[in-house]
């Protein structure tokens, strides 16, 4: 074929393409030729962005970012899980709180930036899984690849010669040998395909599709986890309540919860109807020996009576790390303490307050603090800031402390304040704290009047003839102990948790399959030669497979054992002549 006249080159020009690095610069200037990139339009940039987003590298980066973004949620209290902790954090850090709140660090898992990472990871995984699933499905339906012409060029290769009898048909023997190899490979879990060319018979085998299936299951399960967490989070609610012995909690937003955090899709009017009554709370304490670790609590058990509409009441128990399940809710035991019964009467002897007051424990010996607020019934509002000591003991400094967690010598003390409690302006106030700002202290501290100290059954007068305070003894009502106990329960409903568990298990199984299932191809070829058959065994790993050489050795050994033929020496295989390469023309000296 003759070259077109337009392609005729100057005989003195180098035999190089026009765009070779040695080509002369047509720009008329010295130096490197300018590199011109293709112009990308809007569609091109969108396609480029989509490919970057759905790449495995981006998915790994987003997964790492999601893990990092979740760290503040374990450091800073979250409104959804610990609203009281957020309130306390705001009180303790008034300057830093507005900054962290603006960054949504108290609502990490519903923040804009966390949701953005979450959604991008979801899109990246979906965009990665769908095309890979399509490609894998096509690979499952396709046949194993054809047998390479020269198996000896593969790294894991073995050639063996077997003898033929004098009157045996070489082509038929070669085909029978490959039939046996095909049977063994199929029995070992390989997909097999015969590729015969004339007298040469061969079988191609492939296995390890479970590896890619595991990868797809892993990525698909991650998508399932994201969906389950996203949708389940909208249907989840968490609430906290405090129940004193003898009291009943009703699963209703307006009746039973001290704090409640519903998901965005929760209908608070359709909550499961049930009630929980705390019959008794048992705590097992170590012996009061005075030594290290004495009096430590060993076990906590809340005895409940569970009532549902149309059913007989039944008993229930809640322990630490052993929640009680009811109607899809999980009831967790989060804390406990003492709830002394305090009665306040006015100067005329009329009862203005009589309630079980939960005191919050401050140490292992159950030294507890509590607050009583009298908003009505007195000439002025009163606030009582109290300490409760289950086993009161006087220190060398004169201070009182609890020496033991159980009720041995119970005592309650109060500092009393008079004035505005700050609850009439509608500002939310915690029932467990008292802000004495702007109030007059009338007992305890620098008031000139000693703090009120009461034992069970004792009554003391309020300063100035304002009335009396009584620490009620519950044993007078037939109770076993002088002071009631209370439990703090967390009621949690997580619709997505079972689905998250299922997808997490699938992700683990898929990851194990993707890591440990080898993807490999094996070939067995039988070629008739003079009075013998050349059997070639070869393998090729798809990825990392340190056992590929052993797999080739195993199939050759089992195959030869099944054939039962004697091995013979084969003449060296003739090398295929190589096509000579054209000599390169020497580039002229341009200097």
Written account of the structure:
By secondary structure, the chain is α+β, with helices and mostly antiparallel strands. The protein folds into four domains: 42-139, no CATH class; 143-208 and 518-568, 2-Layer Sandwich (TATA-Binding Protein), CATH 3.30.310; 237-336 and 489-493, no CATH class; 341-471, no CATH class. The protein has ten helices and 27 strands. It has helices at 42-53, 56-69, 72-75, 83-92, 97-102, 112-141, 170-187, 209-234, 497-516, 548-563, and strands at 156-163, 191-194, 201-207, 237-244, 248-250, 259-262, 275-285, 297-307, 314-319, 324-326, 329-339, 341-346, 351-356, 360-361, 368-374, 382-389, 392-394, 400-402, 411-418, 440-443, 452-454, 459-461, 467-471, 484-493, 520-529, 532-541, 567-568. Helix 2 packs antiparallel against helix 6. The chain is elongated, with a radius of gyration of 41 Å. It starts with 41 loop residues before the first helix and ends in a 23-residue tail after the last strand.
Mean of all residue-level pLDDT scores: 86
What amount of the residues lies in strands? 25-35%
The neighbouring-strand order within the major sheet is 2-3-25-26-1-27
Instruction: Report the total helices.
Output: 10
Radius of gyration in whole Å, from Cα?
A: 41 Å
Number of strands: 27
Low-confidence stretches: 1-9, 574-578
Secondary-structure-based class equals: alpha+beta
